[in-house]
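Cross-posted from the bioinformatics board.
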Amino acid sequence: MTGTGSSIGSKRTEHLHACAQCDLLVEIPAIIPHRTNVYCPRCHYNIALGHNNAKQHVLALAITALLLMVIACSFDFISFSANGQLRTISLFQTSAELFVQGYFVISILVAAFMFVLPAAYLILLCLIILNSHTGSSDQSSNLSGGLLSSVTMGKWMSYILPWTMSEVFLIGVLVALIKVISMADITLQTSFWAYVIFAPLFTYITSVVDAHRLWGWIDNAA
Amino acid sequence: MPHKSASNPSVNDATHTLSNQPPTPPELHAPSADTAAANGLINCLVCQHLSHATPSINSTQGLNDSQQRCSRCDSALSSRTQNSVQTTLGLLITSMLLYIPANLYPIMRTQLLGETQDSTIIGGIILFIQHQSYFVAAVIFVASVMVPLAKMFALAWLCYSATRPTHIRQYELTRLYRITEFIGKWSMVDIFVVAILVALIQMGGIMSVTAGFAASAFAAVVMLTMISAHQFDTRILWDKLEPE
């Protein structure tokens, strides 16, 4: 598995990969069997995941997730009725209400973690895949209009990824619902169900798009 | 032997200067593992691209690759994250200090028919246990108390191990690091619960919920421990691997 002395002196480093967590040089096979992980032989870091048709698969899932996100934004999230009063909130009100109360920083953080950053990640991912389809080196013909190169978008994606918390937000919603379910009538609206599907889908997409695969697509586009 | 490390501008010297240990002769470490650093390559942490290390003038101060940029994504390259342990410890201590107000101040303020009740994180858990909602109490306890504390202890242990000269368990520590990194964002659950309750329960004078100062402090704790974990470079643990 490990690289040999012959390949190091030359410039041929396409299949040579250094483990991000222990720096061991690993020769990544050109074709990884479907649904198989490649682990670092020394520290067992999960380097890459094999997938036969990752590009189309991920593109389809990312568009699905973006559509779910549009649904989650356009409809009501949860209705809450107690003592004859009804209150219906949208997804954005979860952060807007904090803003109204003067907790500006947390309000912005909540909006970013649960919605803005996951959406940005998916949009950048779609643009990179579509750019790699055209395969043109001419930046102006790319879908991002030449404003952003695939490389820049890939860097942004790697900065965004640790801060996407849609699955954590979903658990937060469930815990909050268990808290209030005894004191009021709760109605779960369309937006809630869209988010319930979106969060696991997003987590699945991020697990398929590892750094090795993503930068392979970016190399195709550039 | 020691005079060699001062004059030889190789990647190995830089890695050992970073770990706060007296420079060891590179002959001991280079053959023990086929690492990128031992072969004069630098791995880009953003795009996983390997670049050839170009030695520069500052090599004796352990800063020899601070100026080099990745040939694919133009990120700043360094063979090992610079001052990794110091940065991690600094952020970790800040988050530990912020964890004190996060527990002392109320995270949420409930107004029920003119009565105001403040609840801290621990107070909320006790309330749920009294109401026999053991599941919610367990979720809040794990997310707000256990995970942040476990993360702080794990990072402190990793920093301590990284400064020891030899005999550390690299594999177990790397696994500990991976768990620490994975559980990082799950502490945000409590902030999200507060955000949803604040949005949902706004019934004017009958019942309303506002956030408290501890929410800001706790969000800062979570974010600082996440950045702290991200700054820790597990590769410095593997540099201490004993040759077989």
